[in-house]
From TrEMBL:
Gene3D superfamilies: 3.30.160.810, Translation factors
Region (Disordered): 136-155
Keyword Transmembrane helix in record: no
rRNA-binding found in the keyword field: yes
Record-given protein name: Large ribosomal subunit protein uL3
Top-level taxonomic group: Bacteria
Protein keywords: Ribonucleoprotein, Ribosomal protein, RNA-binding, rRNA-binding
SUPFAM superfamilies: Translation proteins
GO BP term, pick one: translation
Function: One of the primary rRNA binding proteins, it binds directly near the 3'-end of the 23S rRNA, where it nucleates assembly of the 50S subunit.
Entry similarity comment: Belongs to the universal ribosomal protein uL3 family.
Quaternary structure (record): Part of the 50S ribosomal subunit. Forms a cluster with proteins L14 and L19.
Length: 209
């Protein structure tokens, strides 16, 4: 699916700012870019239109040799993270050009993709919002249990996808319809109102909707 222009960043945490009507708005601060264009792809040579961007300086010992050669073509140094952005039309950017937070404006609607906070191994009440077992007399140490998980003789097995206890969080998550509250280009910061996925210092991609 073709995407509009995007930028990579790091979730710094939360703050609040006061808007024109005097009200306080809670927002998430994202340090985004500058993200150099590492590679440009077009339909003629690659079969689709896209640009590859990078973020986060890296030491030479942390970058594999093939990637070092890939980064050298752009002449912008070595980076920890790269992402490819599909484009609807032919790319207008060139290798080595920087993407900054100035591609966004206050009031823009964006979607943010990141890795959600890991919760470890969780029970069915936290993971799936189960109601739990009765807490009345006669029920001992079963209050947060899932209850019966079996079936009748037919099919005689637990169906795949059954909601049970297990690993929760730490998965790719995209939140849509978030609002850009402010853009501070001199500090490479975007302030976004809404639920931005991931922990502090987590990698996120901010895309226009």
């Amino acid at each position: 699916m073709a995407e509009k222009m995007a930028i990579l960043g790091r979730k710094l945490g939360m703050t609040r700012i006061f808007v024109n009507d005097g009200s306080a708005v809670a927002c998430t601060v994202i340090e985004a870019g500058p993200c150099p264009v590492i590679q440009v792809k077009d339909a003629a040579s690659d079969g689709y239109n896209a640009v590859q961007i990078a973020f986060g300086p890296a030491k030479e010992k942390h970058v594999p040799k093939p990637m070092q050669g890939h980064f050298e073509k752009a002449g912008k140094g070595l980076f920890r993270n790269t992402r490819e952005i599909r484009l609807e039309g032919a790319p207008e950017m060139e290798v080595g050009q920087d993407l900054t937070v100035e591609i966004f404006n206050p009031g823009d609607k964006v979607k943010v993709t990141g890795t959600s906070i890991g919760k470890g191994f969780q029970g069915v009440m936290k993971r799936w919002n189960f109601g739990g077992m009765p807490a009345s007399h006669g029920h001992e140490k079963v209050h947060r249990s899932p209850g019966s998980i079996g079936n009748n003789t037919e099919p005689g097995k637990i169906i795949k996808g059954k909601k049970m206890a297990g690993h929760m969080g730490s998965e790719r998550t995209t939140v849509i319809n978030l609002e850009v509250v402010a853009v501070r280009a001199d500090e490479n910061l975007i302030l976004i109102k809404g639920a931005v996925p991931g922990p502090k210092n987590g990698l996120v991609m901010v895309r226009k909707q």
